Amino acid sequence: MAPQELHDDGKHKEAPTSTCTPPGSNSNPSGAVHPTTSSPPSDASGHRPAAANPFPLVLKFEEVVYKVKVGQATEGWCTRVVSSACGGRAGTRKNKAAALPPREKTIISGMSGAVRPGEMLAMLGPSGSGKTTLLTALGGRHRHALLSGKITYNGQPFSGAVKRRTGFVTQHDVLYPHLTVSETLWYTALLRLPRALGAGEKRAQAEAVARELGLTKVAHSMVGGVRGVRGLSGGERKRVSIGLEMLVDPSLLLLDEPTSGLDSTTAARIVGTLRRMAAGGGRTVVVTIHQPSSRLYHMFDKVLLLSAEGRPIYYGRAADALSYFASVGFASPLSVNPADLMLDLANGMPRTTPPHPSPHHPSYSLSLYFS
Ligand SMILES: Nc1ncnc2c1ncn2[C@@H]1O[C@H](COP(=O)(O)OP(=O)(O)OP(=O)(O)O)[C@@H](O)[C@H]1O
Ligand SMILES: [Mg+2]
């Protein structure tokens, strides 16, 4: 499981391939250097050079672990009710500690990877595997005390400058229900775009984002979503949330489940937009996603597959995942959606039995997930 060496100087030197390196095996037996990670995206792959983005940002994370303390009693109405029911004895510090000893729970561990300008990384895994937790950590939104490992942005730790260049789209949209789509975009442009830009330019940018995301048809519809205010569909709301982050033209865009609850066409349209932002605009994009269709899967440059226990199973090029799993004994027909195979594996449902489940065979560490 040891990831290959990461360089933190922000230069395009080298990057890890599969983090799921079974004991005693070579994760890259062919010796081939990872095409997406060894060099900036080429024109041959349809990518424009990362120079389109004035502030290209290389995101690297190494052995990231996130732990929380669980089982700690906190003073709240519940504790107070129990306390008074027990004659005031249950709420004492001594009794609380005895009843609920705090323990540490590891949410994610051993997460390593790198995403460069022009690339889109998708984090896949079962529900509760820690995708949101890792994404939140990459966005600098976790308390440091609970987080260990190394996360760098162009070789530097998280800072105010990185924060200003980072867009974060949460799983659940947070929008004002009584504003229309165009008002939402317009006010965000006023608040978040540089003062140096004139009102006309800000309005033009807001309209460009609405066009890009196919929101012009609903530009004058209220966002809605609260009782009594009918509004946008789920897909439209999600596109507005993405638009608010696109407006500020982030170098690093992190999106939590941007396609959940959407039909496959809308989902493909959104991921296509994100892909253009990455490949065409030199942005660094990370998304979490539950069960991408085959069409969506092939839009990703890299994939990080998490196990239900919050450990990495695969990290590498999306296009290489099937051959990697075939090489460790989990072959599947070429016609299969790679995401389906990967999610089955992450959920402990092998499609084929590993041929040599011995500790010395590459398939061994994967077979552990199936026990
Ligand atoms: N602060 C916390 N305290 C206790 N448990 C937590 C905390 N934060 C996350 N967890 C647990 O960690 C696990 C991972 O949560 P997370 O939201 O990252 O999963 P996920 O992969 O994003 O799931 P989903 O696909 O359903 O969104 C869950 O079991 C969650 O309950
Ligand atoms: Mg989540």
Structural class: alpha/beta
> Are there runs of 5+ residues with pLDDT below 50, and where?
1-51, 353-371
- Ligands (ions, cofactors included): adenosine-5'-triphosphate, magnesium ion
Work out the radius of gyration: 23 Å
Largest sheet: 6 strands, mixed
Strand content: 15-25%
CATH topology of the domain at 46-165 and 250-368: Rossmann fold
| Strand segment count | 9
Rough shape?
A: globular
CATH uppermost class of the domain at 46-165 and 250-368: Alpha Beta
Strand order of the largest sheet: 5-6-7-3-8-9
Distance between the termini: 18 Å
Short description:
31% of the residues lie in helices and 17% in strands. With 371 residues, the chain is of the alpha/beta class.
Question: Can you walk through the features of this model?
Answer:
Belongs to the ABC transporter superfamily. ABCG family. Eye pigment precursor importer (TC 3.A.1.204) subfamily. It comes from Triticum turgidum subsp. durum. It holds the Pfam family ABC2_membrane_7. Residues 1-50, 348-371 are annotated as: Disordered. Residues 361-371 have a biased composition (Low complexity). The chain has 371 residues and is α/β, with parallel strands linked by helices. The chain has a domain at 46-165 and 250-368: 3-Layer(aba) Sandwich (Rossmann fold), CATH 3.40.50.300. It is 31% helix and 17% strand. It has 13 helices and nine strands. It has helices at 35-38, 77-85, 93-99, 131-138, 160-164, 181-192, 199-212, 234-247, 264-280, 294-297, 321-327, 338-346, 364-368; strands at 59-70, 103-115, 120-124, 147-153, 166-169, 252-256, 284-289, 302-306, 312-317. The strands form two sheets. It has a six-stranded mixed beta sheet with strand order 5-6-7-3-8-9, sandwiched between helices. A three-stranded antiparallel beta sheet has the order 2-1-4, covered by helices on one side. β8 and β9 (312-317) form a beta hairpin. α6 (181-192) packs across α7, α6 runs parallel beside α8 (234-247) and α7 (199-212) packs across α8. The chain is globular and about 55 Å long. The two termini are 18 Å apart. Adenosine-5'-triphosphate binds at residues 68, 70, 107, 125, 127-133, 290.
